[in-house]
Every structure is written in C-alpha cells, then in structure tokens.
C-alpha cells in the first residue's frame, strides 16, 4: 500500500513559468544573472565621471584586450601543446602555465595605459586608470562571462553556477582595478623604487591567484561558494593595499605639482 | 482508490503523470500486485486526457520523488518563514520528455505463428487423426516494453515446448509411434483476439488444413502456472473459503460446448481428468461458457476453433477469462509455481499419451497395468527445461508489435520447435489491408529529462538581492570618499611625496 502511494504521483508542473515555452532557464533568472555580471561595469562607467571622456578611449583598451588575448593564444598553442591524456598533475601544470602566460596581460594593460592614454596626459589620473579598467574589463566580461551565461541559459536546469559567475565577474573587477592601478604606479617616473618589491609581489599575487585557488580546491575541495569567498578575500586584501599605494602616490604627486 | 486519485489530479490540472513502477516486480506480492493490476487495467480502460509515462523506479527518479514527497509533506504544516526558506533553498523539478510525438502505426504489422508436427506411424499420415496443442506466445501489458507475460502465456509456451520435446522421443521410435499425428502450434497475436489462430484456420495450405480438420481434439494452453487466489470465480466460493488455502487449486477446462457422452472429446477430457487427479493438483474443473458472438473479443483461444466446429478446449489455471493476470505486466516469475507447472505438464503428457496409445478402452486393472508399463517408457518432464524456457520468455517483453518475423525470440522458438518437431513452419500472417483486424503501434519510448528549477519567487528574491547589491556599488562609486583613503598616514606616502 505504501508503495502504491509512494509510486503514485509525481506531479509534473504544467507550465512552470516561462521556462516551458522558452525551453531555457527563466528569462527572469537570466536577466538577474546578466545584471549581476554587467551592471557594475556600467555603473562604474556612468557614475565615475568617465562618461565625459570620449568613449573611443575605452574602445582602444578593448582592442588592446583582444590583441593581447590573440597573442596569448598563439603563444599557448605553439609553445604549450595540450597533451591528449589529461591527468590531475597535467591539470596543475596547465593552470600554472596559464597563470604564467597571464603575465602577458600585464604587458597589454601596461601598453594600453601608457600608449593609448598618452594623448590625454592632462586628464585626471583617476580617469586614465578607470578608462583602461572599463575598456579592458567590459571586453573581458563579455568574452568570458556573458557568452557562457548565454550558452548556459539554453539549458533548463537551475544551477547556482550562473549566479556565481555574476559574482565572480564583480570580484574580477576588483582584481583588474588593482592591477591597473599598480601598473600605472609602475609606469610613473616618480615612482619610489623602494616600493618596487611590494608592488611586484602584489602584481604577482594578483596574477597567480588562480593557481593558489586551484591548489586550494585541489587539496581541500571546498564548495564553490567557499572558493568564491576566498577569491573575494584575496581580491579585497590586494585591492586595499593597491588602493593605499595608489592614493598615496597620486595625492603625493598632486602635492608635488 | 487509484482511479480517484488520478481523476483528482486531472481536475487539478496536472500536465502529465509519471508512474514509478517498482524496479523488480517480484517485490510486489498478493494484494499489492492485485492493486497494481487494477490500476493498470483502469489506466488502459479509461480515457485519460494527459500523457501517462511509466518508468521503473530508478535511483535518480527515486531521489527526485523523495525530495518532492518530503517537500509536499513539509508544505502541509509549516510556518510562513519555513516555507519561504524552503522556496529559497529547495528545488522544483521540471520534467521534459524528449519528443511528444503520437505513437506511430507499425507499417508492416504482422504476427508469426509457428506450426510443427509429429507424424504418426502406420498409415497414411493424412488419414490419421490429429491432436493439436496450441498456445499463444505473445503478451500484453500497459507498457508494451515491460510486458513479459510470465503466466499468460509464457507458462503455456513452456508447457507446449516441454510436451513437444517429450513426445518427440516417443515418436522417434517407429515401434512406439502412436497412430495419431500431433500438431503443435505456437500462435502469434493471441492478445489480438487470437489473430494468429484465426489466420491459421483460414490458411491456404492443404496439408495443414487437412491435419487441423482431422483433429480429434484441440487443447489450448493458457496460464498454466498461476498460483492461488483464483478461487474468486469458484461458484462455491463462500463455502470453500476456509479451505481455499490448503490444496493447490486444480486446473480448469474451458469449453464452449460440453462434449457429448462417448465422443472422442469426452474420452480425451476423461483421460486428462484422470491424469491430473493422479499426477497433479486434482481433477479438472470444467467451465462451460458459450461463445457470445456479440462480444468484441473472444475470451479463450479454443473459441476460435469452436467457431469452426472443431472440438477444442482451453486448459488454464485461471477459472475466469477476465482475470486481470492474463493482461498485465505485474506478473513475474516469482508469482509462478514452476513445480506446479511441471506437474501440470507431466499430467498433460500422461493424459495425451493415454489417448494417443488408445488406452481408453482398457480401463480395467489389466489396462491399468499395461498402461503402467507403457507409461514407464514415457520420459519424465524436465523441470529445468520448462523453467529455463519460462525464465527466457519472462526476461523478454513479448508485445505483439515486437515479435516480428526475425525477432530473436521468434527465431529461438522456431529453433526449439525444429529440434523436436517435423516440418516446422513459420507462418507470417498479416491483417487485411482494407479492414484490418488490428492496428499495431510502435512502442512509444521517450527519455525524460528532469530539470532542477527554482520557483519564480526565488527569482524575485534574487532580483531584489541584485538590485540592492548594485545600489551598494553605485553608492560606493558615487559617495565613498576614495581619496580619503590616501590620507591614512603611511610612511610610504611620505617617501613618495619626497621623491
């Protein structure tokens, strides 16, 4: 008897919201994730006084991003061919390699920062840094977050993944902002060379944080949310240090001038 | 009870219904099995406006079911906060079937009937009388791919194959050969109103025709192994209720017309009766049911023969043709009494042999003795053989649309018959084009995808959360005194300003 009741009735939801018609995750949910992913960049652009600068400057950074990625891809494909058999150790090496190649990103950002914004020498330091952040960051977020989100949106299954992706994009923004600020400092001729070790270690820690996170997940296998929190923690610490350095320097500079 | 639940669901707007069948049908016993069969029958007999899916209870489905059941139980008595929390953390499931096409008609639908004989000795074959043993081998159930029909009619087929093997040994010895032909028929389309049998009788084949029409008696086998619980149709049900458990119930002979006193049919039944009382569970009980031509379906296979005025009877453990066990998938080999089946086969063989060797006239002690001697040479029925066939048949679903001409199971049966019988033929029978007797549909099988989904309320919560977060961002950028951070007195700053 119990079995009959048990086996009895698995009700299927007749038309659970839009999903049935779309054959995808609910449009609402998709909008949520998209907003979470992209809106911070938009807010940054719109409300940090960046919209007064011609946006072609941001576009230049975007082009810079694309070019850098192409160079990275070429390098990865030629120098580090993927082996057919993937073991966990291979995976570790792969992550380490990717992080190393990401150093090229720093080069790209540096070029964007110094060459593309050279003409706007008289514009504020903040604008210079932020325009690079927005140009580079938006392109990155479209390429690495929005496209996967769109693909994932075709599945019906709910997963926390897409929400995490959105949050992760926000953390990436913090990372990127710190990196750009640090690089700007390095590019200055009046940069205090005694701070170089600190600056370099911050840059490297930003660059190699994926490897650190990979090792962490490899040895402790934490939940995705915990991993996200760790990433956030690393980002906040390095971001705060960078912020201290940056403001110390920009304020000092204005004082000198 | 089930039907009411179902109707209630339809009224409440259920999109479709998924029935989880127990992974192993042997887990369901007695009353439960009966309830399942009733449910099956009601699903089949009633018009249900929503699609009904049947699936075996797999692990993943079990997990989904458990989570749904527990959430349903929680919904019943919970506070607002608890249910809100549940909305936030819990999942709903959305089931999507891969394709929702209507079942397609099988283009070249046909049934296959296998016929094999053992020719009697001493005399022209055609002039000798014939005894026919018939069993249909297909099965029926709510889900075609799950219908293995263990009792109806795997037991009949196993019994027939056992008989064929046994008598082939008797017929091999020229001296021992009885003066009758034995014709074995495995008819297809038994669940399609005995279409295979019908076509067999209309077959344009002189040899076969003469054999069939010279038959002394035609014995159809159907569900020979059902255990217990068939007393319900017993007339003296109320009286015998107390004792109904102790004796293994006897088999029933279903006839359309009681045989006349002294006719060959009467002799045959008499002999079978004696054999069954000696070797098996007890004397046969005769149930006489006239053919109602107004009915859409014939109730037993012998009625096909009776309609052609051939003497025929069906021997079955079931005493009513409407027994749900004949058309259900909820019968499995655990509900089957193999021992009893073997006994029944032995009794059948004994009775048939007595008839074939014409021992009916020697009923005295002398005859008994002589009969006993003869019987000593009658090989025993191998219960392994019977149960092996039973297992083999039970492990394959045998819906009529599956059993095409070259289906391995049909080939297997053909080979088994060829091993012991002569002139085994495979008759492929097709329904009439203009007015088909039956229409077969392809088995609609689909893959269900279960998707974890969140309720719209959850999305609303997420939207509020995202909005709050973005406001925080905005205020950080717009109002946070970023430059104030720079005034934190740091030795670093002093150095940089000096440089």
UniProtKB/TrEMBL annotation, chain A:
Keyword Cell membrane applies: yes
Q: What sections of the protein cross the membrane?
A: 21-43, 63-85, 92-111, 169-186, 198-220, 226-246
Query: Main localisation, per the record?
Result: membrane
Q: Where in the cell is it found?
A: Cell membrane; Endoplasmic reticulum membrane
> Where would one find coiled-coil regions in this protein?
none
Q: Which UniProt keywords apply?
A: Cell membrane, Endoplasmic reticulum, Membrane, Transmembrane, Transmembrane helix
- Topology versus the membrane: Multi-pass membrane protein
Pfam families assigned to the protein according to its UniProt record, in alphabetical order: DUF2053
InterPro entries according to UniProt: TMEM147
Per the record, what is one GO cellular component? plasma membrane
- Hey, which family's this protein in? Belongs to the TMEM147 family.
Protein name per UniProt: BOS complex subunit TMEM147
Species of origin: Geodia barretti
TrEMBL record, chain B:
- Keyword hit for Endoplasmic reticulum: yes
* Highest taxon of source: Eukaryota
Entry keywords, A to Z: Endoplasmic reticulum, Glycoprotein, Membrane, Signal, Transmembrane, Transmembrane helix
Entry's Gene Ontology cellular component terms: endoplasmic reticulum membrane
Region: Disordered; residue ranges are 232-259
**UniProt domain Peptidase M28: residue ranges:** 129-233
List, alphabetically, the Gene3D superfamilies matched: Zn peptidases
- Name-wise, this protein is BOS complex subunit NCLN
